């Protein structure tokens, strides 16, 4: 069997490795625009700050590792089109035949049509090349003031990196809060307050209308000119769908796939940032542009091609980050979005400590849990705290994936030790607060 993968990022690289484990004889070819296989885009802000020393350090495995697995690499290669009738991929280096084709073409940074966005000193943060350009610019220009456009995960992590380098940082966001698709106003304010302590300032409900100077020297926000010597455009990403659309595959926000990650052509799969899957809460189509989702999709697609009876489950989009030592975890629906979707909910919220009150060193933690009133099921959570948010958001996400009710969380068996956690865990207390709203 000839299996061709278009895309050498997280989804494509992991698919190739999973597929090789399942089928030692298949001819596996990975075609990618970049010169390297998988690296971690989530690590890129930490390269800028210097926490990770070199851009190359985020490459997971060298190209030779894949070649030793008898995976043929066609890197630095662009796919021009797909001929579905002949079952060939047409590249700038010739044609590649396939029996099964996997599209792992990822996403691209969305750059809004801001005047001056092409000027020197204006960057996106999506690739190794982006990081190299940013680091070179900082080394040469030594900017003191940075403006970040967009307050999503990448924007905030970029803002943290610049602040750690000693820059004065302003984050500009069109919505009324940071992380607007992941956090409600109350939890977003906790993150904002912590970032402001470290010198990052915010402007909400406005946009940048112009970037002035090349190299950049200011940005225009409304009628106001704000000094800026570096600008990061972090206004989200868009799925790469052009190749699939040109091939006649069903495309919406992303490439439409079924539960087996097959496109409208059963011999063509789509995985990772480019694939449009199902939201676990609303049942609507959505994108799941997370590294963890990319790996799960890669595994499911490989197993399905190998003949296993598996399917990709609807997503809660569980995510976590850390900003200036503050951990932020989230999954599922927010309170605001639930109201927009017409979902009646019960919300529980608890502010406490990560350790018993009598034990020194406890850090503040806020847990917010969201349950659907119609069936009492857990459909979302947001946790902000100084430590151990990861374990708690993972626990709640796992419960939601198993259709847990409010009672399941209230009476959950948890662990206790004074240096680690209180006897009654904050997640169960938050659920108890929600349970009162059912009575």
From TrEMBL:
- Which positions fall inside the Pyridine nucleotide-disulphide oxidoreductase dimerisation domain? 324-423
Database matches in InterPro entries = FAD-bd_OxRdtase (IPR050260), FAD/NAD-bd_sf (IPR036188), FAD/NAD-binding_dom (IPR023753), FAD/NAD-linked_Rdtase_dimer_sf (IPR016156), Pyr_nucl-diS_OxRdtase_dimer (IPR004099)
Q: Where is the FAD/NAD(P)-binding domain?
A: 1-281
Q: Please indicate if the UniProt record lists Transcription regulation as a keyword.
A: no
The answer to whether the entry has keyword Flavoprotein is: yes
Keywords on record? FAD, Flavoprotein
GO molecular function terms noted in the UniProt entry: oxidoreductase activity
The record's section on Pfam families has:
Pyr_redox_2, Pyr_redox_dim
Cofactors: FAD
Family assignment from sequence similarity: Belongs to the class-III pyridine nucleotide-disulfide oxidoreductase family.
Q: What is this protein called?
A: NADH oxidase
- The species this protein belongs to is Thermococcus aciditolerans
């Amino acid at each position: 069997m000839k299996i061709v993968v278009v895309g050498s990022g997280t989804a494509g690289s992991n698919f190739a490795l999973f597929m090789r484990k399942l089928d030692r004889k298949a001819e596996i070819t990975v075609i990618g625009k970049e010169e390297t296989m998988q690296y971690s885009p989530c690590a890129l802000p930490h390269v800028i700050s210097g926490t990770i020393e070199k851009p190359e350090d985020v490459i997971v495995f060298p190209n030779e590792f894949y070649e030793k697995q008898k995976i043929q690499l066609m890197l630095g290669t662009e796919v021009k089109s797909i001929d579905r009738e002949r079952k060939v991929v047409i590249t700038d280096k010739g044609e590649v035949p396939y029996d099964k084709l996997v599209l792992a073409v990822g996403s691209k940074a969305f750059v809004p049509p801001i005047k001056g966005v092409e000027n020197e000193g204006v960057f996106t943060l999506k690739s190794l090349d982006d990081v190299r350009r940013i680091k070179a610019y900082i080394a040469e220009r030594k900017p003191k003031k940075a403006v970040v456009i967009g307050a999503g995960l990448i924007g905030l992590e970029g803002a943290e990196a610049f602040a750690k380098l000693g820059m004065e940082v302003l984050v500009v966001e069109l919505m009324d809060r940071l992380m607007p698709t992941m956090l409600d106003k109350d939890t977003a304010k906790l993150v904002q307050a912590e970032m402001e302590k470290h010198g990052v300032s915010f402007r909400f409900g406005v946009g940048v209308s112009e970037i002035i100077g090349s190299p950049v020297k200011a940005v225009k926000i409304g009628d106001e000119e704000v000094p800026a010597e570096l600008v990061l455009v972090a206004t989200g990403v868009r799925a790469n769908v052009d190749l699939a659309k040109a091939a006649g595959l069903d495309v919406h926000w992303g490439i439409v796939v079924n539960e087996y990650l097959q496109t409208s052509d059963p011999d063509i799969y789509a995985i990772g940032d480019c694939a449009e899957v199902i939201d676990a809460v609303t049942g609507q189509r959505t994108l799941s542009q997370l590294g963890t989702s990319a790996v799960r999709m890669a595994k499911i697609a490989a197993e399905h091609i190998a003949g296993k009876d598996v399917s990709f489950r609807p997503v809660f989009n569980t995510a976590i980050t850390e900003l200036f030592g503050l951990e932020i975890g989230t999954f599922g629906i927010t309170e605001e979005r639930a109201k927009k979707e017409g979902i009646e909910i019960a919300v529980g919220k608890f502010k406490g400590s990560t350790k018993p009150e009598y034990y020194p060193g406890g850090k503040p933690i806020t847990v917010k849990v969201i349950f659907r009133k119609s069936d009492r099921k857990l459909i979302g959570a947001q946790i902000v705290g100084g430590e151990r948010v990861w374990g708690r958001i993972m626990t709640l996400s796992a419960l939601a994936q198993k259709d847990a009710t409010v009672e399941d969380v209230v009476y959950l068996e948890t662990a206790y030790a004074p240096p680690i956690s209180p006897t009654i865990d904050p997640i169960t207390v938050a659920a108890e607060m929600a349970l009162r709203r059912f009575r």
